[in-house]
C-alpha cells in the first residue's frame, strides 16, 4: 500500500534535519513554525517511525531511523527536481534561482568576470551571491543557505564534492620601494627566507592563516608578525605603505584603496598550491543552472587568470 506523504512534507523534513531546529527551518522556508511541527508529526505518523529526538528550545536531533531516511529523501528530492527541470525544458533553457557563495578575497577580482558572462548566456537565471570566509561558506553550504560556493579547498572535509576551476600558487607581496620590488623592471624570484628579518603582515582568516603558517614551516622561517588583519585589502594597503610584506595566492591589480601600489614577487620555494573550486555538499545532485555556473567559471577563470 502506498504511503500518503507529500513532497512538501519531505522538503520540510530535509530543512529541519539540516538546521536541527524547527523554528530556524520555518524561517528559511517562510512558513509558520506550527506548519513545520504539524507536517513533521503527520510524516512520522504516516511512516510509523520517530524521525527526530525532540530537545528544548525547539531543537531536534535526527534519530537513527531519521538519519537513514534523510539519505533516501535527499536522493528522492534531487531526482524530483531533475524531473521538474526536464519537464520544463531546462535542458535547453536554464532558468530559476541560484545562490552562490564566494570567498571574500576572490569576490572582487574573479566574480564580476563570471557574472557578466553568466548573465549574458543565461538571462533567465536569477543569481544571488553570499560573500564570506572559508569556514562560514562551509557552514552555509551544509545549512542550504547557498547552492554552491566558489572558494579555496583549504580545510575542506569529505562532506563536500568539488569541481576544480583553477590552481593558484603563493607569492610574496611588497611595496614598490622594497628591495625585491624590481624597480622599473620585473621582480626576480626569491626564497621566503630572504624576508625572514622583515615585518610580516598576516592575513588572519580561517584556514588561510594555517596555510601560510605551513609555508613558513616548510621554509624553516619564523615570521616576525607585526600586524594581523582579516581584511584582504587592509593587508594589501599596509604592505603598499611599506609596513611589511605578506604572503598571498590571489594576484590582483597592483592598486590599493589608498592609491598606492603593491608588487607580486615570485617565490622559488617548493610550496603547495591551492585549488580554486566550486564546492557543494557531498552526494547532492546539482541543478542544471548550478552545473552551468560551474562550467562557465572553469571557462572564464581556468586559464591561469
Automatic annotation (TrEMBL):
Keyword line: DNA-binding, Transcription, Transcription regulation
GO cellular component: protein-DNA complex
Keyword RNA-binding: no
SUPFAM superfamilies associated with the record: Periplasmic binding protein-like II, Winged helix' DNA-binding domain
Molecular function GO labels: DNA binding; DNA-binding transcription factor activity
Pfam family, one: HTH_1
Keyword Transcription appears in the UniProt entry: yes
Ranges for domain HTH lysR-type: 5-62
Family per record: Belongs to the LysR transcriptional regulatory family.
Name of the molecule in the record: DNA-binding transcriptional LysR family regulator
Organism of origin: Brevibacterium celere
Amino acid at each position: 500500500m502506498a504511503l500518503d506523504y507529500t513532497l512538501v512534507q519531505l522538503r520540510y523534513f530535509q530543512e529541519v534535519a539540516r538546521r536541527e531546529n524547527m523554528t530556524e527551518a520555518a524561517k528559511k522556508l517562510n512558513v509558520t513554525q506550527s506548519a513545520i511541527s504539524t507536517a513533521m508529526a503527520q510524516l512520522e505518523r504516516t511512516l510509523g517511525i520517530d524521525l527526530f529526538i525532540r530537545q528544548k528550545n525547539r531543537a531536534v536531533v535526527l534519530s537513527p531511523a531519521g538519519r537513514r531516511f534523510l539519505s533516501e529523501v535527499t536522493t528522492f528530492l534531487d531526482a524530483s527536481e531533475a524531473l521538474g527541470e526536464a519537464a520544463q525544458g531546462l535542458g535547453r533553457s536554464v532558468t530559476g534561482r541560484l545562490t552562490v557563495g564566494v570567498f571574500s578575497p576572490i569576490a572582487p577580482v574573479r566574480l564580476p568576470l563570471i557574472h557578466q558572462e553568466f548573465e549574458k548566456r543565461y538571462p533567465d537565471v536569477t543569481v544571488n551571491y553570499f560573500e564570506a570566509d572559508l569556514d562560514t561558506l562551509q557552514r552555509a553550504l551544509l545549512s542550504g543557505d547557498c547552492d554552491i560556493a566558489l572558494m579555496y579547498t583549504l580545510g575542506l572535509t569529505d562532506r563536500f564534492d568539488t569541481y576544480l576551476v583553477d590552481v593558484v600558487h603563493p607569492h610574496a607581496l611588497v611595496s614598490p620601494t622594497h628591495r625585491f620590488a624590481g624597480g622599473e623592471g620585473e621582480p626576480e624570484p626569491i626564497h621566503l627566507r630572504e624576508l625572514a628579518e622583515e615585518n610580516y603582515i598576516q592575513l588572519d582568516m580561517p584556514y588561510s592563516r594555517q596555510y601560510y603558517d605551513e609555508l613558513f614551516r616548510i621554509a624553516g622561517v619564523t615570521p616576525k608578525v607585526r600586524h594581523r588583519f582579516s581584511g584582504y585589502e587592509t593587508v594589501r594597503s599596509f604592505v603598499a605603505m611599506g609596513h611589511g610584506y605578506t604572503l598571498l595566492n590571489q594576484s590582483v591589480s597592483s592598486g590599493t584603496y589608498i592609491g598606492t601600489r603593491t608588487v607580486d614577487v615570485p617565490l622559488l620555494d617548493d610550496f603547495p598550491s591551492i585549488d580554486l573550486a566550486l564546492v557543494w555538499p557531498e552526494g547532492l545532485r546539482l541543478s542544471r543552472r548550478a552545473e552551468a555556473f560551474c562550467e562557465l567559471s572553469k571557462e572564464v577563470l581556468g586559464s591561469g587568470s
